[in-house]
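Continuing the series of single-chain predictions for the mutant panel. This is the parent chain; the variants come on the following pages.
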Amino acid sequence: MQTDNNTLIEDLLATTENATRSARKFKELSEAQLNFKKRPNQWSILECIEHLNRYGDFYLPAIESSILAHKTNSGTYVYKSGLFGNYFANLMKVKQGKIFKMKTPADKNPIGTELTITTIDRFLKQQEMLKSLLNQARHADLTNTKVPISLTKLISLRLGDTFRFFVNHIERHVIQAERVLN
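Parent structure:
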């Protein structure tokens, strides 16, 4: 994938805003609805959101550190995805309404956690941070700035790929949360 930074950032901001809108609607639901599960081994709305919070706890500071460490420039950049980054970003992408199921790392699996509405508040704060970082990244080199991944710090992805992976991951679990009530 190759595009200019601003086009990529605008697309990611639009997807982020959709997720934020959905989360605000979740706040209108009762705690019983937010904790409802169709089956015991499936996640509730709050568990879907808590899963995203746990990833946000890692990726938002990592992204921020990478942006701050990179010298800003007002030049126009062309973003080019890396092989692994593009693979992971596309793996997270919801395609034609279908979500590819994956095994969740134990430390990111919220099943059985007692959760309240504050889970959504925390997510909304993380969404605001994400929007801020996306806007800051307009002046960063999304191709040559690297961010470590959550599984191991030995592997880093391009900043643009990390944003795509992270935003696609948010989108997939917000859709999963929306489907809980349907």
